[in-house]
Amino acid sequence: MTSREVTTIHTGIDFGEGPRWHDGRLWFSDFYRHGVFTLDADGAIWMADVVNGQFCRVHEGGTISETIAVDGAAVACALGGHEGRTLFLMVSPGTQPSDVDGLGRSVIMATRVDAGAAGRP
């Protein structure tokens, strides 16, 4: 497995059971289904493994080629940035609404990956 440098790029994020208006913005959350994936150009997906506090790169057949461990609940991820090679990671302190709702304790982190995004949705 590859070890990657991960940088926190934004802190103090609030979100709840969504969607709702908060601080002049419309916030969305699918916190209970944890169904947020991103497809890369090699046909693998990056997924949030909430239970184990990590993000995984999974290939057809279920082979995991990379994991990125985080301190907290791995909530969602997306590929973007220049050339689609920045993996953005949403990390929260827990999995219950009381852990995150209105507390501003969630963060967005980022790391560079080898395979870029598969395209635009």
Proportion in β-strands: 35-45%
CATH top level class name: Mainly Beta
Shape: globular
Helix/strand structural class: mainly beta
| Biggest β-sheet strands, sense, barrel | 4 strands, antiparallel
Number of DSSP-assigned strands: 10
Order of H and E elements: EEEEEEEEEHE
Q: How much helix is in the residues?
A: under 10%
**What is the end-to-end distance?**
28 Å
CATH architecture: Beta Barrel
Low-pLDDT residue spans: 25-31
3D architecture notes:
There is one protein chain. The protein is globular, with a radius of gyration of 14 Å. The chain has one helix at 97-100, and strands spanning 7-13, 20-22, 25-27, 37-39, 45-49, 54-58, 64-69, 73-80, 86-92, 106-112. The chain has one domain: Beta Barrel (Thrombin, subunit H). A hairpin with a 2-residue loop joins strand 2 (20-22) and strand 3 (25-27). The strands form 3 sheets. It has a 4-stranded antiparallel β-sheet, with no helix packed on it. It has a 4-stranded antiparallel β-sheet with strand order 4-5-6-7, with no helix packed on it. Strands 2-3 form a two-stranded antiparallel sheet. It is built from 1 helix and 10 strands, in the order βββββββββαβ. It is mainly beta. The relative contact order is 0.26.
